[in-house]
Amino acid sequence: MKILIIVGGNKHKIEPFVDAGKKLGVDVTIASFSELNFNSEVPFVLRVAKTDVKDFDIIYIRVIGKRLEEASLLVNYALENNVPLVDEMFEHTKMMPLSLSKSIETMKLIQNEIKIPKTIFGSLDYILENGEKELGFPYVIKGTTGKKAKEVWSPETKEALEELVTKLKEEEANGKRFFAQEFSKASQRMRVFVLGGRVIAGITRPTRWRKRFIEKVNGEFPEGIKERLDPIPQDAVELAVRAVNAAKLTVSGVDVVREDDTGELYLWEVNSAPAWGAVAKDTGLNIQEEILKYLINRVNGKN
Q: What is the span of the domain harbouring residue 287?
């Protein structure tokens, strides 16, 4: 029998469980929530250190502390794989909604085989140790709280990366989590607005780090395109709708990119509370009216 006992902080207080397990002839693993990690390979696997969580026969969540996000990730995965949880209360709730945690949202996207840039999730030390090997360099680091562009970084040098990680570790100590993704060489991104499972509008905007890889024309970088997408590419429509369905969202702004050289289409982000000022400006669409129409139809049983 394999038993996992996990805590939100330092695991030294649960070390006695290991000796107790030996006396009883059971395999006990003790861990901290900071040891949870995954990558974007399919099928999705959530690991604690190097062990698949579903390989345990039962999980005892000793203390969560500030680790609500990781606890939610663990609970979701355990329930999906029929791994019993103690306390029993965890078996009756998935805790954090998907939209409040990019780590849980990313898990759902991977499980539904939504194409995203190659991704790894884990502690900052785990990212620093495995990032270049798995993602190449430079790569992108994002906060899991999804605060739009405020929590996205892509240092271009190893020194700048180490400096960033040192700074972010202060936030990690207070419960913040981060994940890393392969750098996408896409000079434009598409923002696709989805309402009730239907794409109603789309715009395009230049990406933040486009000047790293695009070529100058007559000594100058060409201006990025800011306009309405009309029509919205069908593959982008299909990807956006699949992503929204996987994330269980009704009103969403979905960021999709197509790499300049390869033409590969990737999902960057699913936003549960999207800003729509730019969409309204470029398309002339009154988003508030569209949302209200949807809500009215929903009440009247037309959706």
A: 188-299
